[in-house]
Each structure stands twice: as C-alpha cells, then as structure tokens.
Amino acid sequence: MASVSDVVKAAGALRDALFGMSELTEDAGAKQFLLQRHVRLQKAMRDFAASPATADPSSQLDGPLATCRNATVVVVALSPAVPGALDRAGAETDLAVGALASVTKRGVLDGLRGTLRIGNRRPSGRVGAATAAAAGGDGPSASGESGQLLAKVTQLFPAEAVSIYPAGAALLKGEQLPTWWFALILAGAVGVVRWVATQPRGGGSPQFAAVVAAVVSYLLWVVMLGDWFLPIGDPGERARAVAAALAFIWVWVAPVLVGKLDGGSEGAD
Which of 96, 100, 147, 214 has its CB 3.0 to 4.6 Å from that of 44, i.e. a possible disulfide? Predict the structure, then answer.
C-alpha cells in the first residue's frame, strides 16, 4: 500500500522533471508554460500533504502514486523541441494534479484549521518538514517575548464576535427583547470557531486552553458593554466594574496561561 511520502516523492520527481524540461528550451512561451504547470503541481502537492484525508490509512494512494510515476517517465523522455511535447507534458501534469486532488478532501472547515493556533510556525502533517522546506523554511516566528505576547493577545480575543454582537444586541434592544440569549449563542459560536481554528492544519486536537480563554474574553467584553449572558436579570454596575477590572488583568494573564497549558502543542503543527 502506497504511503503519503511515496506519493509526495513521486510528485516531486515530476515537478523536477518539468523544471528540467523548462531549462532545455530557450523559447519564452514554452518556458512559461512549463513553469506554470510546475507551480500548479506544487500547489496540488501542498494541498495533498496538508489534507486530513491523507492521514487515513484507508486512503487510496496507489492510483495517484502510479499516475505521478508514469507522468514522470513520460516527461523525462520528452524534448521541448519535438512537436507536441509541451502539450503531452501539460496533459501528463494535469493527470497527476487530478490524481492528487481526488484524494485531497477539503471541507468547508478545513481552511479554518490552524489559522488561530497559538505558536503555529510550520506546516502540519506527516510530511510537514518536506513541505516546509519546499516553501522556503519553517515560517515566521515572533521576535522576542513581547512579540509573542502581543501575538497571543491578538489571537485569543474573539474578533469574529465583536462585529456581530453589537449589531444584533442593538436590534433586540430596539424591540425591547432580552439580549442574554444572543450573547450566549455567540459564546457557543466562538467556542466552535476556536475549536476548529486551533486544530493543526493536518487535523488533530485543538488547543483547549485557547478555546476557553477566547470564550471567557468574549463574555467579559459583553459585561463591560453593559449587557449580560445569563437569564437572571441585570448584574448591576458593580458587576460591570468588576468585569472591567478582570478584563484588564485577563489580557496579561490569559496568554501566559495558554502558553503554559498548550505550550507543548505549539510546535506540533
């Protein structure tokens, strides 16, 4: 049974063959055509390597492996000077890209994974090191402790709810309806979004502390606005003052707590 690394190596050989073919021609149009196929194949390889579907042992990888290997044999044997060689190379590359795409299942939520993961520095998956090298390194990292703290504060605050809650609460208040249930629904939505967005891009466990921190940050913010998230009436000005004080402390405490609790998974992507 073919493995992910087998398919990536075979696709990489085809990519290198396309680049080698482009070096054999002086024609600018032919060179551009081959390099475009090169880039397209590279993207398909990255999507394939990062797809959660490839982590499933039952994935049918024998077909893509055979297609990439056959395409490599054909492209290596072609000469750019031979009529029809470019069209044949393009067709073989398209077959390989289609074969990779056939086992690259990307759902609606796949694009969200890893976007809010604390300490997300490198591509995920079993071939993460290979794809990181192909991308040109391990990715950017924060410079210094202050940069890391600022990045964590930014990632932990649920900005996705800030633009939604005030508008919805204003509409409810205009109709003299309670807002606590709307605040509570959005808290659940924040938790779901963060649950997915803090998972590694290749699939895996979310950063639980980061999820909790984002929900708590959102609820403190709601109370600071003068609203409430439980069906027990108005909490009063004292509760709002306490929430405001806790929010200022939380801004500095939350990133440290998340770093300690989820720090072991920061480099697991």
Answer: 100
